[in-house]
Amino acid sequence: MDDASAPDARLAAFFADRMARPVVPADGLLPTLHLGADDLPWMEAGNASALQLLHVDLTQGLWISKTRLPPGHQVPTHYHTGLVFAVTLEGAWYYRETPDEVNRPGSYLFEPAGSRHTLCTPADMEGRMVAWFAIYGANINLDDDGAITSVLDARAVLEIYRGYCAALDLDCSKLIVVGE
Fold first, then answer.
1. E strands of 28-167, at which residues?
2. Model's pTM, two decimal places?
């Protein structure tokens, strides 16, 4: 083999080795983590509203939860520093700022970072609203004058949820937490 063909032969050997490897690795796979609908307690927040924290990833600043709200409920105006993804499971909800865009079961909503809104449920809604949210970054709550009243991020929500569960002797050991 002359010097000119040596790189081609080495590349061919490299690609042959790569192609012989399985596409899906056989070793080192992490197990999936499953939560049943009732594996974690709902954190009651008053006024018949509640949050069920499902997953917190402190390395990404992500928290995933289900939120439950009664008819005629309004969450404080807030904005998000990161992306938010939402899927409505039960009932209906909308943003006061865009009342014609009503989320109903099966609806999907994407909120870009920096979005500001006031979540409301219809006063005439039958039953309750339940939605699944994946929130990156912080949720900045505002008063009527636009002043910051609280900041909730993945770490703060995790601490609040665990503290609530501990105070009421509720088991939250199945909560998925990454980055601790």
1. 43-46, 49-57, 62-69, 78-80, 84-90, 93-95, 98-103, 108-111, 116-117, 119-120, 129-136, 139-142, 148-152
2. 0.83
Q: d(Cα 78, Cα 116) in Å, to the nearest integer?
A: 6
| Integer CA distances (angstroms), 168 to 41, 68, 164, in order | 10, 19, 6
Up-side HSE of residue 42: CA atoms within 13 Å toward CB? 14
Q: How far apart are CA 177 and CA 164, in angstroms?
A: 16
Determine phi and psi for 67, rounding to 5 degrees.
Answer: -120, 140
Please give the structure tokens belonging to residue 157.
Answer: 């929500």
Residue 10 has pLDDT above 70, yes or no: yes
Distance set, CA 62 to CA 47, 74, 143 (Å): 26, 23, 24
Closest-CA residue to 57 (of 158, 139, 172, 161): 158
Mean pLDDT, the chain, rounded, equals 93
Cβ distance 165 to 97 under 8 Å? no
Alpha helices in the chain (DSSP H): 6-20, 154-167
> What confidence tens digit (pLDDT) does each residue in 35-54 have?
999 999 999 998 899 999 99
Confidence class for position 28, pLDDT limits 50, 70, 90: low
